[in-house]
Amino acid sequence: MSSQGKKRIIVSVTTDLVSDNRVYKTCNTLYESGFEVLLVGRLLPYSLSLSPRSYPVIRMKLFFRKGPMFYFCYNTRLLFLLLFSRFDLLLSNDLDTLPANFIASKLKGKPLIYDSHEFFTEVPELSGRPFVKSVWEWLEKLMVPRLKYAYTVCDSIAGIYTEKYNVNFRVVRNFPLSAQYENILDSESSADKFILYQGAVNMGRGLEQSIRAMRYLECVRLVVAGDGDKLDELKEIAVREGVQNKVQFLGRLPIGELSRLTPQASLGLSIEEDKGLNYRYALPNKLFDYIQANVPVLVSDLPEMVRIVRTYKVGEVISSLDPENLSTFFREMLTNKKKREFWKENLVRAAQVLTWENESARLKEIFDPLNTNEKK
After folding, report:
1. 329 by DSSP, 3-state: which?
2. Total-model pTM
């Protein structure tokens, strides 16, 4: 332990950290709880600079950016870093960082905590790739049953993991910080109406259908704030559909810039398709970002998202992503003043409950017993 008597935790993730809100909030909470934190991610050629943080950050440069060689190189580099670093416990974010953390924790006899951000082996990117999926499933079956501390993002995924591996997966939902949206601009008073999608631009996010739906709408834009492997294809679709002037692609935005954009939206989208169990039980952080920013939401008919929207009455649920049907929902949700007033009132109440300030108590319940050397 350090000379200050703080326990040192090394947190690792395969993202470049710029827009990884869950890891950002987790590290801040751990730091404020008295841990000495070191965060490890990666650095890409196009990575933006990070905002100042209270703890040190390492971003590793890797020759490979994706595929088997990326995961092998990342975990090899991470393993050497961990073996030659001082730490009291490890926090592994997602299955793709678990091999290095698992080996290091066993070799050094230190506690390992696992944060599963999603149902990793059921992501759409693995559908139709049985060999690759079988490798990840083998790794999961090898390591997860041997974990003592684990948590994930929603009750459904926690229940599946707990039953499958006989490990008590707790739940820490990815709520935003309330202070993140303190200076909210009222979108109702703006003449510039736009529908917002924020997050990863990957398959099965309902974006292709949303772009096609813009053919049926006037005086409104679709704004896509995010990056991913479908971005170029979506830009081509917008051109082919003749709606390139109605669709704006902003790319990935830093956390602060995104926080200024979100409250200006008139409608927030979280319309994932039911492509495997990971999406079926998804509870995306963007849903809670919209709520915290007082933006009405449109979500897919998937159980975790439906539960939030219907419990707090903050938007609508759509069962068909047919572009014409989508445009009907868009138009109604943008123009029905009575419904919008109802949603806005409920959003204010929901935003007071669904905050990281409240949810972080669950995180502290997991980590506080491991922080036995905190100052009296």
Report:
1. helix
2. 0.85
